[in-house]
Amino acid sequence: MTEFPILYSFRRCPYAIRARLAIAASGQTVELREVLLRDKAPDFLETSPTATVPCLKDGVTVLDESLDIMLWALGRNDPEKWLQPDAADSEAMFELIRLCDGPFKRHLDRYKYDTRYVDADRENERSKASEYLWFLNSQLGEGDWLCGSRTSLADYAILPFIRQFANTDRAWFDARDWNALISWLEAFEISALFRQVMPKWRTWQAGDSPIFFPQRPLLPDSAGG
Ligand SMILES: N[C@@H](CCC(=O)N[C@@H](CS)C(=O)NCC(=O)O)C(=O)O
User: Fold this and answer.
1) Taking the mean position of all CA atoms in its chain, how far away is CA 164?
2) Are residues 136 and 123 in the same domain?
3) pLDDT in tens, 118-129
4) Domain co-membership, 53 together with 120
């Protein structure tokens, strides 16, 4: 039995990315189990009531919502003060996230996977999703973050979804006049934190030796010299 909380995750899932961002920033260590969504491991299905990733199991506690996992991690340790935005109250911060998870995500899915929805018109969905992006752009000053001069929960809860939107048609995204939005996304994509949460993992199977997340960098050999 492992002593570490278990995170069922999927590398590219934006919900799982946001959970891993908060876990890494908080300095928690979890055992990461990479789930194959089209062939979910029985242990995962027994753990997650909704059969969605991410899902965190900490002793008898199971958290099945990515935002709850972020709050679990930051509740334990929040060294960068993501829960205390410097230029917005937390009500406003959670409202930004609610708009992302609700209407924006709905339009994003219907834009990215338009063929899965009989009534979805790709351009119409993209333009509806873009209303939220223009709003975010107006929140972001030059080189700034969503809730002030430093990063907060809102940035990291929302950015994985903006990345998914942008990568659906990067040339189109980059040609829009939302410069603050583009800079914000680029700063995220080149950050050490983003790289730290995106290594490739092999799919987990029962009996595998545990993989810990985040991976600790190997310490330089201090012997000799
Ligand atoms: N409410 C969940 C939603 C997570 C979710 O929908 N994850 C997707 C992957 S991005 C999933 O697991 N879908 C199940 C499937 O594809 O079978 C959360 O915020 O964690």
Assistant:
1) 10
2) yes
3) 888 999 999 999
4) no
